[in-house]
Amino acid sequence: MSQSDRFLRACRQQPVDATPVWLMRQAGRYMAEYRTLRQKYSILELIKTPELATEVTMQPINAFNLDAAIIFADILTILEGLGLGLDFVRGEGPIIHNPVRSAADIEALTVRPPEETLGFTLEAIKLTRRELAGKVPLIGFSGAPFTLASYAIEGGSSRNYITAKSLMYGQPQSWHKMMDKFAVAIGQYLRAQAEAGAQALQLFDSWVGALSPADYREFVLPHSQKAIEIATAGSDVPLIHFGTGTAGMLPLLKEAGGSVIGVDWRLDMADAVQILGDDVALQGNLDPVVLFAPVKEIQRQAALVLDSVSGRDGHIFNLGHGILQHTPVEHVAALVDFVHEYSARL
Fold it and tell me: 151, 161, 189, 216: which one is catalytic?
């Protein structure tokens, strides 16, 4: 079996010779090569220049023995196409200059074809596929409706999502109208990424753990489901559905859709297997902070994850969230090699 097959076979719950591994945020600021580019270009310049986005996507593929690449982009660029002003402020993170706060603001959101508004990422996917030359598959991605809506309403990062939840509880009709627009935009964007050459897709619901399971079912599930249905209709491209803080709602994520369910580190993978059953693949779930530990401890923790799903087809090793800044590069290399070697022995 070639390495180019391993990740996609695991997505489809087919036998593999070793557990495939890729890492969320594997391209980024923990790598010196990326920091060198960031001294010359803003993050939006890197994302919106297809040649540079391809270069960044390839940096970890050239450095580590990973089983998949993920296109270098950001979940928030889709908001610009809907009519929102996006900026990244050093030290503060993303800022939405005209956040959504009223029914009129929601009415003004306009869904346009992704080819018009996100063509730079679609072109980067085409360039990266050529650059990869079949070595490993390429993953495309988008933020999920709740996470994107929360950014759009809060105007940036948030701890308690008070403004977003207030709109959700206080103006449910407006909330659902807004979420439907996000679902359509996200679904079309993911589908366009697959048509451009992405061989798998991931839907990131990074903030959805802020909700109760009941609120997820009422206010979010139908919209995530719609986005996934639009993205995958008539296609066999696998879709990974990932959220953080979702231990209490994993069955609902599964119900919303996805051929692979991503699990964060707050739940043992053995428990995730029991909760989700054997009809979906699983991705996860090492705590990203473990990569700051001594290599022996990294290996011990990775072995615990691999042992917990031993004998089950359909596991993709990943972190429970993205690689953190200042993560030692040599620890990333050690983890990737260990996952392959240990799982091949299993």
Answer: 151
Same domain? For 211 and 325 the reply is no
pTM recorded for the entire structure? 0.97
Residues 47 and 136 both lie in one domain:
yes
Considering 9, 12, 38, 217, which one is annotated as catalytic?
38
- pLDDT at res. 3: 80
Per-residue pLDDT of 77-97, as tens digits, reads 999 999 999 999 887 789 999
Instruction: Specify the pLDDT at position 4.
Output: 80
Q: Decide if 323 contacts 332 (C-beta within 8 A).
A: yes
Both 76 and 132 in a single domain?
yes
Number of structural domains, the chain?
2
Whether residue 96 sits in one domain with residue 135: yes
* Residue among 5, 9, 12, 29 flagged as catalytic: 29
- Choosing from 6, 25, 129, 191, the catalytic residue is 25
Whether 95 and 181 map to the same domain: the answer is: yes
Give the structural domain span for 312.
1-26+288-346
Pair (21, 58) in one structural domain = no
pLDDT digits (tens, 9 = 90+) for 233-285: 999 999 999 999 999 999 999 999 999 999 999 999 999 999 999 999 999 99
Give the end of a domain, one of 245, 262, 279: 262
129 is catalytic: no
Residues 107 and 141 in one domain: yes
Burial bucket for residue 119 (CB in 10 Å: 0-12, 13-18, 19+):
middle
Which amino acid belongs to residue 10?
A
d(CA 17, CA 189): 33
Mean pLDDT of all residues in 286-308: 98
User: Catalytic residue at 151?
Assistant: yes
Same domain, 258 and 293: no
pLDDT digits (tens, 9 = 90+) for 28-47: 999 999 999 999 999 999 99
Q: Which helix (H) or strand (E) holds 5?
A: helix 3-11
Active-site choice (17, 74, 87, 287) = 74
